[in-house]
Write a structure and sequence with these properties.
This protein is globular. It is of the alpha/beta class. The longest helix is centred in the middle third of the chain and has 17 residues. It has six helices and five strands. A five-stranded parallel β-sheet has the order 3-2-1-4-5, with helices on both faces.
Length: about 160
């Protein structure tokens, strides 16, 4: 079975992300969850915080590793000897964007992309919406793990 990479910024990791990762882990023998480190992109949490939240949220899994990368995803896949990228899609807009990226990645390398539709009960969840609601004192505790919820509250309160 090929090695798969599940990339993302995971700022923060949501129950939707965890669902896609666990489903990928059920399909592939080896899954690398890859946190994108892009200094040009403003994130609420730093790379190490996002890695920590992923590890805490996913729990132990013998075939899932969590790491970070910068640069081109296809270069990271090549370095990891991964031949598949797994992405979750929530909407037609996601599908359109991910399809174009999948075609470009395949053009740049031999890596294939598997698009997993979001579970219906999680399809409305996004990191950006979670951050926006939490900044306005909304309760998003059902959309993230308890650990991420605590870290999100601490970060927004300026506790670090």
């Amino acid at each position: 079975m090929p090695k798969a990479v599940v990339p993302g910024s995971f700022d923060p990791v949501t129950r939707g992300h965890a669902d896609v990762i666990s489903r990928a882990a059920a399909i592939f023998d080896d899954v690398v969850v890859a946190v994108l480190v892009n200094e040009a992109k403003a994130t609420l949490f730093g790379p190490e915080e996002r890695l920590d939240m992923l590890r805490q949220s996913l729990g132990p899994a013998s075939n899932v590793t969590v790491t970070s990368f910068s640069g081109l995803l296809v270069d990271f896949c090549r370095a990891e000897a991964a031949t598949v990228i797994v992405k979750g899609v929530r909407s037609p807009a996601d599908l359109d964007a991910e399809l174009q990226m999948a075609q470009l990645n395949r053009h740049l390398s031999a890596v294939e992309t598997v698009l997993l539709p979001a579970s219906p009960e999680l399809s409305y969840i996004s990191s950006s919406r979670i951050k926006e609601i939490a900044r306005l004192d909304g309760d998003v505790s059902d959309q993230v793990s308890p650990y991420v919820w605590r870290r999100l509250q601490e970060k927004l309160a300026g506790v670090d």
